[in-house]
Design a protein that fits this description.
Elements (H helix, E strand, L loop, with lengths): L3 H7 L5 H17 L5 H14 L14 H4 L6 H6 L6 H4 L11 H11 L13 H14 L2 H6 L3 H9 L5 H15 L38 H19 L16 H17 L4 H50 L8
Helix pairs in contact: 2-8, 3-11, 13-14
């Protein structure tokens, strides 16, 4: 059987609380579906470690993304998944370590496990049924036999439909084989792995009645779909920092500064009046002042001209008086 220490070494990012929760169910399904040798267990754990990101995703991340919108009828993908009703895409989204997806798969796996996953789709993400669907998929697709001959490439193709994430899967495979001692022949002892009789009726299913059909969904696509969602949400939550200008701000021209000062002065004088009114008052004063200056100059000029005239007149009169008065003869 798989121990807590084994699982920790193979999936180091899985928290201890989840390891303790998952281990009894994991060991039980491995016993039921004959994933009972180090080679079989190493291949199985490597694949589910990659597909579920070390058992941290038991349910598909939902956007919906453009790919996930295709789950909804009418579409070719919806037809393949057996999604016939509006909302089936979200309702029967990927769940479990090997993401079962679509109404058809929920119907098939529910029937095989003796539970109605169509009415209760959320059960497919619980440890009891999540590990059951993964191990059942493994068994019905002949992956135990491929694990015996270490045909890891074909196992990957049957799960993924291609070789996406092969390097990551192989990394987990090498670790799991080393941890479980896959080079040594022998089987696991599952005698202490029992978790009760209410685990589902899958034990009564003979291998001959298990239909072979590849699952259309895996963690590869989930990771691709969730990347833009995560980026978008981060952009929403993170405030954009404003760049500080390297150059100091230029001071406005002198004219503008004086206008500003005048406006401030006007505002202060105006008190409760608005700056608009204050500005009007300043303009009015300036006009008055400008009008007074030429008037003053004109008055000064008039006074000067009058004074000059009277001086001229006086000078004329004094000249006439001099002519009339004869000069006195001096006596010797």
């Amino acid at each position: 059987m798989i121990t807590d220490n084994d699982l920790q070494q193979i999936m180091p990012r899985l928290p201890q609380a989840k390891r303790q929760l998952y281990l009894p169910f994991l060991n039980k399904v491995m016993e039921i579906y004959e994933i009972d040798t180090p080679l079989r267990a190493a291949a199985f754990l490597a694949q589910i470690a990659h597909e579920s990101v070390e058992l941290r995703y038991m349910e598909e991340i939902w956007g919906p993304t453009p790919q996930q919108r295709r789950y909804e009828p009418p579409s070719d993908l919806a037809r393949k998944l057996g999604n016939t009703q509006p909302g089936d895409g979200f309702r029967y989204r990927g769940r479990g370590p090997i993401q079962i997806t679509g109404r058809s798969n929920y119907t098939t796996y529910g029937d095989l496990l003796g539970v109605d996953l169509v009415i209760n789709p959320d059960l497919a993400a619980t440890p009891q049924y999540a590990f059951s669907t993964a191990a059942l998929f493994w068994k019905r697709n002949g992956l135990n036999e491929l694990a015996d001959v270490q045909d890891f490439i074909t196992i990957t193709k049957r799960i993924n439909g291609g070789l996406n994430g092969l390097a990551d899967r192989q990394k987990y495979y090498a670790i799991a084989k080393n941890v479980l001692g896959a080079d040594e022949p022998g089987s696991f002892d599952f005698t202490t792995a029992a978790i009760g009789s209410s685990f589902g009726s899958a034990t009564a299913i003979a291998p001959s009645v298990l239909p072979s059909a590849a699952l259309p969904r895996g963690q590869e696509l989930i990771e691709q779909d969730s990347a833009p969602i995560t980026a978008a949400s981060q952009n929403k939550t993170k405030p954009v920092a404003k760049k500080k200008s390297a150059r100091p701000a230029k001071k406005p021209a002198g004219k503008l500064v004086s206008v500003k000062k005048a406006a401030k002065k006007a505002t202060k004088k105006a008190g409760s009046k608005s700056p608009k009114k204050a500005a009007k008052k300043v303009v009015k004063k300036a006009v008055k002042k400008a009008a007074k200056k030429p008037a003053k100059k004109a008055a000064k000029a008039a006074v000067k001209s009058k004074a000059a005239k009277s001086t001229k007149k006086a000078a004329k009169k004094s000249g006439k008086a001099t002519k009339r008065t004869p000069a006195k003869k001096s006596r010797r």
